[in-house]
Amino acid sequence: MTQNNAAPFKAVLEATHIDIAIKKKTIIHDLSLAIPEGKITAIIGPNGCGKSTTLKAIARILPCAKGSISFLGKDIHSLSHREFARCLAILTQSPVAPTDLTVQDLVEMGRFPHRSFLGRGDKDDAQHVAWALEQTNMTSMSHRLHTLSGGERQRAWIAMALAQRPQVLLLDEPTTYLDICHQLEVMQLLDKLNKELGLTVVMVIHDLNHAIQYADYVAVIKAGRLVVSGEPKEIVTSKLLADVFRVQADEFACSNGLPALVPITVCR
Predict the structure, then answer these.
(1) pLDDT grade, residue 95 (50/70/90)?
(2) Which residues lie below 8 Å from residue 155, measured CB to CB, with a gap of 6+?
(3) Within 10 A of 100 (CB to CB), how many other CB atoms are there?
């Protein structure tokens, strides 16, 4: 399988020949990836391949040892922390909030990049917070947080990110530890935010069928290198599972016309 370097779209984020090292060990090798603006992109690959590392580099959490990453043509490190936070929000795996925090408090924290150095919010802060709660259907739950279900809590964190009013939302395994119903609720929410608001969504995800059903674009990483990228229905196939995940799978057609994969056995 070969890497597809063509990018017939406007890229909102673009990594160019990046290496990323952690504790002097190179995790990502010479990776180039363009993220289409206004679309949902899924980053997939085996455990330990560098998916989350790539996402953290895009979010400026991890530095690149080589290469560069740009946002709408500008090097991400040329932007101040506040400027960058107004453009891009990230939800890491299993975020934890203080026990005395409510959903309202959490979402208000998303307005931090828009506040003055004295901590004062702008006159529209309350309006943006209310909007974010409404978009995620969390308004009626704004007075609590730690009594929420896992799916509700994830929606609260997404509301906090939305309150930043970013152009790009990055998520690291947003459905981890959720049951199938709450997984679908989160995926449908992300789909709604993308379609109704034009929000660019980039997510690391393990469920390949979710990638097929909800993503417009997919990037496959194996052993720290980009294997291939393109439309999910063309990329995520039984051959990909065999080549990248060492799994034999059967392919089926869903009622919506998109394919689905059912893993059968490990390839030897």
Answers:
(1) confident
(2) 136, 137, 138, 185, 186, 189
(3) 8
CB 224 within 8 A of CB 244: no
pLDDT digits (tens, 9 = 90+) for 46-89: 999 999 999 999 999 999 999 999 999 999 999 999 999 999 99
Distance CA 46, CA 43 (A): 11
Q: Residue 122 carries which DSSP code?
A: P
Q: Using alpha carbons only, give the angle 187, 35, 42 rounded to the nearest 5 degrees.
A: 30
Chain centroid, CA 84 distance in Å: 16
What is the distance between the alpha carbons of residues 136 and 83, in angstroms, rounded to a whole number? 24
pLDDT in tens, 213-267: 999 999 999 999 999 999 999 999 999 999 999 999 999 999 999 999 999 999 9
End-to-end Cα spacing for the chain: 19
Among candidate residues 204, 202, 174, the one with its CA nearest the CA of residue 47: 204
Q: Where in the chain does DSSP place strands (E)?
A: 11-22, 25-36, 40-44, 66-71, 74-75, 88-91, 168-172, 200-204, 217-222, 225-230, 247-253, 259-266
Provide mean pLDDT across the span 150-164. Answer: 94
pTM: 0.93
Residues 6 or more apart from 205 whose CB is under 8 A from it? Answer: 42, 43, 44, 173, 174, 175, 211
For residues 85 and 71, give the distance between their C-alpha atoms in angstroms, rounded to a whole number.
Answer: 12
Whether 230 and 36 have beta carbons less than 8 Å apart is answered as no
Rounded distance, CA 18 to CA 32, Å?
7
Residue 119: its pLDDT value, please? Answer: 54
